[in-house]
Write a sequence for this structure.
């Protein structure tokens, strides 16, 4: 292991060799045996490790309790605890009803259109009927006139 | 992923239960189980927040983190992630949100307030070192600070840090390396 590689691994993983990649530990230990500069770097790295891993000042018992109480007091009510999620669901509708609902879904929003179509159909039918009656009456009248002209009747 | 032990024996008390077993109770709405989880982890979450965002905001952030854990408790899936890893992910996300909102504040303006725990001389020295380190940590990028804190302060592996930060392992290794190089030069 070169001194540069040792320095890089020390910066990446710190001075605890058990946290280094397994394959590089033995080479690092060999370098530490052979190199005074490597040992100096390692000692400095151990000091920094101690500083970095030092515990933050602990909360006092009273402060911990006060913070915990404040958190518990501010918990929102949860509308969906796990037990509620696991409650049996309402039985599903029978398939035939589902099909009826499916058709209903199609028909319901168009109900107005269906009524309008029906009304138009009725009006059209009545109109055609009345119109036909008048045409028939006119035709009969014309036909009678024509026959009269040709001396029939 | 290793199988996660969930200790819920008939003879086990709540204090003996693993985080994962408590979390299963929390998912059922058990507030006393949640109280135990909070008491168990609040010191470390505050410590992490102190190092990532600063001492002044750390307690507020820790409170937000645990409220988020409660409201999002259904999202934790036993067997997929250890509770601790999931908790740190929530905490890191909250710290990042906070830092992004407060980005306009200069590093030099970040206040360092004294901790409230009175104690003997050893605690004073510990507090001074912690304050010195926190000041140095603010010279790092947010990602470097987060990676260094989780790796050294929380003793997580680089792989766990990658999982929490949502990064590749080699990206985390690079953050650890550059962050430590920067700290070495700042603390000289």
């Amino acid at each position: 292991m070169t001194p540069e590689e040792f320095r890089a691994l020390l910066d990446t993983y710190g001075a605890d060799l058990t946290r280094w990649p397994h394959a590089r530990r033995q080479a690092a230990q060999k370098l530490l045996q052979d190199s005074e500069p490597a040992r100096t770097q390692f000692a400095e790295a151990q000091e920094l490790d101690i500083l970095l891993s030092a515990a933050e000042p602990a909360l006092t018992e009273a402060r911990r309790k006060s913070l915990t109480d404040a958190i518990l007091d501010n918990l929102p009510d949860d509308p969906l605890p796990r037990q509620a999620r696991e409650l049996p669901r309402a039985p599903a509708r029978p398939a035939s009803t589902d099909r009826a609902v499916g058709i209903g879904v199609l028909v319901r929003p168009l109900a107005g259109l269906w009524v309008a179509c029906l009304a138009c159909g009725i009006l059209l039918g009545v109109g055609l009927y009345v119109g036909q009656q008048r045409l028939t009456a006119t035709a009969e009248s014309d036909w009678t006139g024509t026959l009269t002209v040709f001396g029939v009747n | 992923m290793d199988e996660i032990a969930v200790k819920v024996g008939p003879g086990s008390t709540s204090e003996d239960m693993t985080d994962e077993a408590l979390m299963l109770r929390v998912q059922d709405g058990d507030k006393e189980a949640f109280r135990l989880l909070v008491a168990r982890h609040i010191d470390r979450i505050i410590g992490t927040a102190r190092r990532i965002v600063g001492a002044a905001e750390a307690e507020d952030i820790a409170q937000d983190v645990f409220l988020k854990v409660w409201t999002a408790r259904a999202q934790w899936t036993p067997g997929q992630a250890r509770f601790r890893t999931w908790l740190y992910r929530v905490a890191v996300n909250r710290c990042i949100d906070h830092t992004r909102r407060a980005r306009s504040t200069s590093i030099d303006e970040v206040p360092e307030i004294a901790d409230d725990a009175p104690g003997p001389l050893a605690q004073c020295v510990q507090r001074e070192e912690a304050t010195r380190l926190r000041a140095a940590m603010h010279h790092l990028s947010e990602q470097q600070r987060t990676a260094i804190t989780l790796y050294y302060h929380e003793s997580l592996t680089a792989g766990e840090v990658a999982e929490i930060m949502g990064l590749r392992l080699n990206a985390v290794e690079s953050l650890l390396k550059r962050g430590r190089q920067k700290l070495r030069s700042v603390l000289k």
